[in-house]
């Protein structure tokens, strides 16, 4: 009798194990079909009009086809301007994306990168240059609105001292974004590398991303 009970128990355990394994496979299959979304906003801090491209990344094909015309997602973005926002939908298992930028007129000066997306991501894609070398960088959008001030963070192509209200608050790092700083005067409340940054086209109480270089502001983008 005891042997019968043991055999029955083993059968039940094996049945439960098979059922749980089957549920796991179903869950994986569901994840593969699950659609995710991300938003990409393009910043052209270069000295020429540019096209931005995006394409799902495949490990086998690398960057192949990225600069085909059907992968343009923000065309003819003027120099030192912000392009349109692109909504990108993808399957959960295809969360890698290739990004590229090229000169709109010549089709040359092509630069590219790849990144991994998270569902609901809201990103800046920044085309920038330093000492003749061009690059693309991706950072998350972020708002920290504060009443009666311009709340700004800076993305720089080099190391520059940042002054707010006459006081040094930080030194930028090449290809990195700073934290936020509250600036009360739009004309001369912020200086980067000794250059006054004009914020007067913005609005008090709003948040902005500033792309800067050794000569000062290149792009001011509302977060």
Task: Describe the protein.
It is a single chain. The protein has one helix spanning about 1-35, and strands at about 35-45, 50-55, 70-75, 80-90, 95-105, 110-115, 120-130, 135-140, 150-155, 160-165, 165-170, 180-185, 190, 195, 205-215, 215-220. It folds into two domains: about 30-140, Immunoglobulin-like, CATH 2.60.40; about 150-220, no CATH class. It has about 220 residues and is mainly β. Residues about 1-25 have low confidence and may be disordered. The strands form four sheets. Strands 4-1-7-8 form a four-stranded mixed β-sheet. The chain has a four-stranded antiparallel β-sheet with strand order 3-2-5-6, with no helix packed on it. It is globular, with a radius of gyration of 25 Å. The protein is built from one helix and 16 strands.
Structural class: mainly beta
What string, H for helix and E for strand, traces the elements in order?
A: HEEEEEEEEEEEEEEEE
Helix content: 10-25%
Structure annotation, total helices: 1
SSE layout:
Blueprint: H1 2-33, E1 35-44, E2 50-56, E3 72-77, E4 81-91, E5 96-103, E6 111-116, E7 121-130, E8 133-140, E9 150-156, E10 161-164, E11 167-171, E12 181-183, E13 190-192, E14 195-196, E15 207-213, E16 216-222
Parallel strand pairs: 1-7, 9-15
Antiparallel strand pairs: 1-4, 2-3, 2-5, 5-6, 7-8, 9-12, 10-11, 10-13, 13-14, 15-16
Protein name: Lipoprotein
Organism: Pseudoalteromonas rubra
């Amino acid at each position: 009798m005891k042997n019968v009970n043991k055999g029955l128990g083993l059968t039940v355990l094996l049945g439960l194990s098979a059922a749980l394994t089957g549920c796991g496979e179903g869950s994986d299959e569901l994840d593969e079909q699950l659609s995710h979304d991300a938003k990409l906003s393009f910043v052209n801090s270069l000295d020429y009009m540019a096209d931005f491209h995006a394409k799902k990344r495949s490990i086998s094909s690398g960057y192949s086809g990225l600069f085909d015309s059907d992968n343009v997602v923000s065309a003819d973005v003027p120099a030192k301007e912000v392009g349109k926002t692109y909504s990108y939908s993808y399957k959960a298992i295809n969360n890698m994306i290739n990004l590229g930028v090229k000169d709109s007129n010549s089709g040359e000066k092509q630069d590219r990168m790849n990144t991994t997306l998270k569902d609901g991501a809201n990103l800046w894609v920044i085309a920038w240059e330093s000492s003749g070398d061009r690059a693309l960088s991706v950072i998350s959008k972020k708002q920290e609105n504060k009443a009666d001030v311009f709340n700004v963070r800076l993305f720089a192509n080099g190391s520059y001292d940042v002054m707010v209200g006459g006081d040094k608050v930080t030194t930028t790092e090449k290809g990195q974004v700073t934290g936020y700083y509250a600036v009360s005067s739009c004309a001369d409340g912020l200086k980067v590398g000794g250059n006054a940054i004009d914020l007067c086209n913005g609005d008090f109480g709003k948040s902005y991303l500033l792309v800067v270089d050794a000569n000062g502001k290149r792009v001011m983008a509302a977060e």
